Amino acid sequence: MKNIHIGLGIVLLLAVLMSGCSGKEKPNDFDWKVGALSAVDQSGNAFATGSMAGKVWLADFIFTSCTTVCPPMTYNMTQIQDMLKAKGIQDVEIVSFSVDPHVDTPEKLTQYIGKYKADTSSWRLVTGYDQKTIEQFSRESFKTLVLKTEDSDQVTHGTSFFLIDQTGTVLTKYDGLEPDHDKIAADVQALLD
């Protein structure tokens, strides 16, 4: 009986030690499934959220005529993209959903992202749906507000960056205006390990 207790103690100790060696824990703040959305990207190519299956990606919500939060958010996302590449983290994509799809044509999205030093081979800016669709999609999939009022050319929207795993699940979010680069890199790496 004593040997069984010693054996169980050793097994428990090994389990604790091994869990400490398995690397960073995957983020799990949320368990939100990204719904289906069909769109076109800045190159005019078809895009669907379902095509992101099996990929780790970061998402945000922006629009090209934004005069407040979108320029710093987009700049911050380019900095994150550069930092991930510098750390050798290649297998992550970025999707920026336009919250002003009637204004944001693929051409306007191309002009917008052209102002930044972004690698558009792994960054898709998407549009091609209607206003009601993006408002519902953002609310249901990302629990974030998108609201365009009739008398303004500006759109109210959240400023978070979202991390989505290979199953299309939103796991966590970050402040898009003051992102923690190291945390984002660690979280992305944990999903890729």
The radius of gyration computed from the alpha-carbon positions, rounded to a whole number of angstroms, is: 20 Å
Overall geometric form: globular
- The tally of beta strands, per DSSP, is 10
Q: What are the low-pLDDT stretches, counting only 5+ consecutive residues below 50?
A: 7-22
Describe the sheet with the most strands: 8 strands, mixed
The largest beta-sheet arranges its strands as: 1-10-9-4-5-6-2-3
Instruction: Classify the secondary structure makeup into a structural class.
Output: alpha+beta
Question: Helical segment tally?
Answer: 5
Instruction: Summarize the helix and strand pattern as letters.
Output: HEEEEHEHEHEEEEH
Assembly state of the chains shown? single chain
Average pLDDT taken over every residue: 90
**Terminus-to-terminus distance:** 40 Å
Strand content: 15-25%
The helicity comes to 25-40%
InterPro entries: SCO1/SenC, Thioredoxin-like_sf
Family: Belongs to the SCO1/2 family.
Protein name: SCO family protein
Organism: Paenibacillus apiarius
How would you describe this structure in keywords?
eight-stranded mixed sheet; 24% strand; alpha+beta; two-stranded antiparallel ribbon; globular; 35% helix; 193 residues
